[in-house]
Records
---
Amino acid sequence: MVTSPPYNLGIGKFKASGRYKGDNWFAKVASNAYPDSMPEADYQDWQRRFLELLHGIVRDGASVFYNHKIRHSKLEAISPMLWLPGPFKFRQEIIWKRPGSVAQNARMFIPCTERIYWLYKGDNFTFNNRPETKGLSDVWEIAPVKNTHPAPFPPELPRRCIEACSRRGDVVYDPFAGSGSTIIAAEIMNRNCLAMEIDPSFCDQAIIRWQRETKQAAVLEGTKKTYAQVSRESLRSKRSKGGNED
Ligand SMILES: C[S@@+](CC[C@H](N)C(=O)[O-])C[C@H]1O[C@@H](n2cnc3c(N)ncnc32)[C@H](O)[C@@H]1O
């Protein structure tokens, strides 16, 4: 699994500030973002429960790459290690060094890293011992990408995880798929991907992105209908009910 869950940052409430002020991209995409705002204790319990459920469904030897970051609230840092590794074993912490990050808090050094926690289930894990994998350090300097999702990771990030710890034809899972970066990475690496996303507009975005990258038409499973057909039908049905087309 490779995923980046919501960070509980209240992302929809952000206004661009500081070095992001002139860049209205973040304010624009964050204004229609998921709420991402719950009491911190509930959020951590949710993530603990999520890891327990995940542990129940993945096979022994499966790796989990969990992208998160150190957040800051009430003059203290909150590390994801407060709820990790759950029932998994903890293999390694990888630093994702990005050129900048949204500074939530004054009176501190500008955070410009995120973390990728590598966990695994059972007594061992797959690690492809090829030069392109074992030559990587635990600091990954990868430029962020911008799309219409407020918090995408660049496909190169899941691609490295997938390349290192799975084999051709394996299944990769991303339960918080957002704009579908993991789906794209799995495609590049010839893996099958199962993805979930709660927000229908991000699902649309992920499908459109997949179609653009693969030059194929997405088909709704169990039917022969393409995404374009399903979208047209859904639009027609909304119109006939007099509903909002958004
Ligand atoms: C940090 S973003 C993931 C971004 C993704 N890695 C990408 O590159 O676009 C987290 C995603 O989780 C989704 N999400 C939040 N709660 C969810 C839930 N209960 N089930 C599935 N997806 C959920 C949000 O809508 C959001 O798109």
Note: Strands lie at 2-3, 63-68, 71-73, 76-78, 89-97, 113-120, 139-141, 171-174, 192-195.
---
Amino acid sequence: MDTLLDISHIDMAFPTPEGGFTALKDVDLKIKKGEFVSLIGHSGCGKSTVLNVVAGLYQATKGGVILSGREVTEPGPERAVVFQNHSLLPWLTAYQNVELAVEQVFGKTMSKPAKKEWIEHNLKLVHMDHAMYKRPNEISGGMKQRVGIARALAMQPEVLLMDEPFGALDALTRAHMQDSLMEIQNELNNTVIMITHDVDEAVLLSDRIVMMTNGPSATVGEILHVDLERPRDRLSLSKDAHYNRLRSEVLTFLYEKQRKVETIKNKTISTGTTAKTA
Ligand SMILES: Nc1ncnc2c1ncn2[C@@H]1O[C@H](COP(=O)(O)OP(=O)(O)O)[C@@H](O)[C@H]1O
Ligand SMILES: [Mg+2]
């Protein structure tokens, strides 16, 4: 396999007051150019930690990340991140938010008119050209995520890292965003790692779904190859037997093999005649 991104035998331990907490143990994953890979797993298993190590925000305790033959040691624009909460600067317009990223990456190499064209092109890709001069508080949550994606794409990253990018959106908006992302990926052939806990989203968008075991010491449990033809259409897929088989494999992993037992701290506070549970 022609590997673009090599997440090589990563351990990640965090110092805590009670000693080291091993969040990840021997996470090993190779991703090739143009691949769309989803990370799925229960909340708290370590998905964001994997992404943060790839982003260069965390340094792995053991192992490392190699992108295009270079070791990742710090954050860089070749690994653009889209977070669940848009993280746009509120005092800047959509255009200016994208411009900031373009200046960072192409400040010295692109002419002024070329930059303008490039910013507009990327906002158009996410269908935000009609609201370029609006500020984040003047647009919806879905639109803010669109701008966040435009900003990431405008950096022309080698790999696009997305941490539950649509997690805060309502179901219909999320479906629109997924369709847009598929369209964009079809056009640009980006390499993407996306974290999700939405099984349908994972199957619809991915070439591979990496299913993580529960933590501590979380690792790659199983990898599912999603060999559905592209372009994919959610409506026809919902009636497709193979789609439903793939979907049920992920569900089985999550809810049978890695069933999460929530530990709820039951503190009984006696308040006279009634007992409250907090
Ligand atoms: N900076 C940190 N310091 C200590 N523990 C952390 C830190 N970041 C994450 N963790 C712990 O690592 C585990 C995995 O977290 P995370 O990667 O955020 O999970 P997920 O994204 O799958 O919900 C959790 O138990 C979390 O509490
Ligand atoms: Mg997370």
Note: Residues 178 and 201 are 7 Å apart (CA to CA).
